[in-house]
Amino acid sequence: MPPRLRSALSAVLLALSCLLAPFGALAAWAAYGLVDTGRYVTTMAPLAADPNVREAVVDTVGDGILRAVDQHLGVRPAGGSVRPFVRDAVRSFTQTEAFRLAWDTGNRVTHDAIVRALRDEEDGGAAGRPVTVDLAAVTDQVKRQLTRDHVPLAARIPVEHTAVPVLPAGELASFRKGFHVLEVAGFWLPVAAVAFAATGIALAVRRRRAVAATALGTALGGGLLALALAVGRGLTLAGLPADVPHPAAGAVYDALTGTLRTAAWLLLGLGLTVALTAWLTRHLPLTRRLLPLRPAHAPHPSAPPVSPPPHAPAQTPTRAEA
After folding, report:
1. What are the sequence ranges of the domains in the chain?
2. Torsion over CA of 177, 193, 228 and 261, rounded to 10 degrees?
3. How wide is the angle at C-alpha 26 spanned by C-alphas 263 and 176, nearest 5°?
4. The overall pTM is greater than 0.85
């Protein structure tokens, strides 16, 4: 194959590899991290101790209890002394082990329902609901706490399903449209990126330069992916409804994209490291060649001068020399 054709084909393959690297990381994160229920529950578990999430739970559950009392009992306790008791009871419950267990259980049940809705095209109802955490167990525990504290009307509080939205329904619709594509792309995009990179480097006329270019392109893709996550966070929070607490939604976004953020920084760091290594291995031999070298026949400064043997017989010039 002519060198020009090899260089052109190598450049195309390396460009495709650098382009597919961040998209492969995104697809793998969505297909293997976001959709897996066990990983999702493990990712969301630390949010039970997040202050912003706890305050969102206090607001949602407290308002839900007061609203249920208003609807079912025909009284309006909002203006009286019940509201502080309700909020304090909910806030106290969010610091217990029972709340963390209810949080994990609610996340698991909700995530299972969403995954089933994404994989079942005929079930359109689940796709129209936002991602929520069901806090009926929290309401029940708060009711028991208020009853023990002898709060009026606490025993008559109905326990209803109260949910905290963590993703709007519009996001679910987008996820469902690309879900089947992500399941395929999550495996094949990273494989294709590695295959294109290996083939492009093998075809390159100057392989060290091809390795450095591939590494820099991968680092650039990782940096752009990290930037896209930061911009996406702002856009996601700006598009949320006014009744969704933004600090809690931001904590959820950060938790869900933590693995993808790590992958982006890994691509950036690994690419820069490989590019720097390729540059050093290219210039170190040149630096060594430019260093002044001591002649091989020059005697060492500390070595004594070499004198001829004392009894060496003098050479008689031959007739030709004479």
Report:
1. 3-237+244-283
2. 100
3. 145
4. no
